[in-house]
Amino acid sequence: DTAVSQTPKYLVTQMGNDKSIKCEQNLGHDTMYWYKQDSKKFLKIMFSYNNKELIINETVPNRFSPKSPDKAHLNLHINSLELGDSAVYFCASSRSGGEQFFGPGTRLTVL
Amino acid sequence: QKEVEQNSGPLSVPEGAIASLNCTYSDRGSQSFFWYRQYSGKSPELIMFIYSNGDKEDGRFTAQLNKASQYVSLLIRDSQPSDSATYLCAVTNAGGTSYGKLTFGQGTILTVHP
């Protein structure tokens, strides 16, 4: 199936741990994004990569580090997890700055 | 002032009625406007986009854009219970450092009751 996929779907971990979320798209898009949706359902962009180059880096703690090994993949590594990092993280992709298509989300719970 | 503002609702309409969802935005440089639907526990799903002033129709959905008033709306005709979801308005000022950055409103919860 053509889609944006993310792993894992659920992630439960202790404060202070380091974790990664992976995203892959097979839509042939050249731009990928990470969004965070908080408990109030507000969706906010964190990062964007175009052709493996970081183009959007919002005010995000440097504990969050994205990595794009190629145009089809964008991973998110989070160090020293905090309670406030609990949220749903969505990956999205688009062709250049066009319509964005979202992955299924990763629900991160920090205990 | 929020960059993209929506009435959080909930908006309740009877089945078969027209649901009207509204959104205002603050950046006059905004060029592209999107409506996403998000069911509880699911990811946002793109249902409409509009770039030019006026109306754009797709099936039961009509998006309306008025750049002078910085206003975009979504009409859903013949509303069905399956339309019950949160509707997210998003805008982007493509180009430069804002390339592809979508700014979302807080969403409007729509409930269509039988």
What order do the helices and strands of chain A follow? EEEEEEEEEEE
Task: Tell me the span between the first and last alpha carbons of chain A.
Answer: 35 Å
Low-confidence stretches of chain A: none
The biggest chain-chain interface is: A-B, 24 and 25 residues
Sequence stretches where pLDDT stays below 50 over 5 or more residues of chain B: none
Look at the helices and sheets of chain B and give the structural class: mainly beta
Structural commentary:
The complex is a heterodimer of chains A (111) and B (114). Chain A has 111 residues and is an all-beta fold. Chain A has strands at residues 4-7, 10-13, 19-25, 31-37, 43-50, 53-57, 64-70, 73-78, 87-94, 101-102, 106-110. In chain A, strands 2, 4, 5, 6, 9, 10 and 11 form a seven-stranded mixed β-sheet that branches. Chain A has a four-stranded antiparallel β-sheet with strand order 1-3-8-7, with no helix packed on it. In chain A, a hairpin with a 6-residue loop joins strand 9 and strand 10 (101-102). The model of chain A has no long low-confidence stretch (mean pLDDT 93). Chain B is 0% helix and 54% strand. Chain B is built from no helices and eleven strands. Chain B has strands spanning 4-6, 11-14, 19-25, 32-38, 45-50, 54-58, 61-66, 71-76, 85-92, 102-104, 108-113. In chain B, the strands form two sheets. In chain B, strands 2, 4, 5, 9, 10 and 11 form a six-stranded mixed β-sheet that branches. In chain B, strand 7 and strand 8 form a beta hairpin. At the A-B interface, strand 5 and strand 10 of A face strand 4, strand 5, strand 9 and strand 10 of B.
